[in-house]
Amino acid sequence: MDQEYMRDMAKQYKEELTPLLRYLPWLEEHAGMKTGSEYDGHADGNTTMSFPIYDSTLLGFVKEAGKSGFMDRNYAYVYSRRQLKTPADERKAIEAATMREWNVLCGILSRYVLGGNTKAVLWAQAVRENIFGMILEKMQELVEFWDKPLEQE
Fold first, then answer.
1. Could you read off the pLDDT of 58-99 as tens digits, one per residue?
2. Residue 1 clears pLDDT 60, i.e. is over it
């Protein structure tokens, strides 16, 4: 890929990435921590099915990321091609990613954002394992390398 193409891609990615960067300090602060709780319905005397309750900042991030152009509904292919099985595998792939592997970053992000719609524990896991934070940092690093630095809101 030539440098002009990479710069064009960086500018395009920058527009999508900028709104997500405002969540980066929160994601970094909550890495390794539990970010939700479980409501079991016993408080009012009735028993209901339990469901997770998440921090509003996490829900805001998931909603914003879900609207971004970074979502890849075929993220399973990234996982099978790269043989990603554990959060440690994902972290290694994130650290090693270059602009050429942007699709890997999008695939990992998509697994947690889109997969969390049906398996809600994934959102909290991505924060606890620092996957969301690492992806945003790597995306920012790559965009800044090919374009001028991004300003966080």
1. 999 999 999 999 999 999 999 999 999 999 999 999 999 999
2. no
Q: Which ranges in the chain belong to alpha helices (H)?
A: 3-21, 24-30, 56-67, 75-82, 87-96, 102-115, 121-128, 131-146
Other C-beta atoms closer than 10 Å to the C-beta of 151 total: 7
Sort residue 32 into left (φ over 0), alpha (ψ -120 to 50) or beta.
left
Separation between Cα atoms, residue 102 and residue 69, nearest integer Å: 12
Report which DSSP code applies to 111: H
Cβ partners under 8 Å of residue 68, min gap 6: 16, 17, 19, 20
pTM over 0.90: no
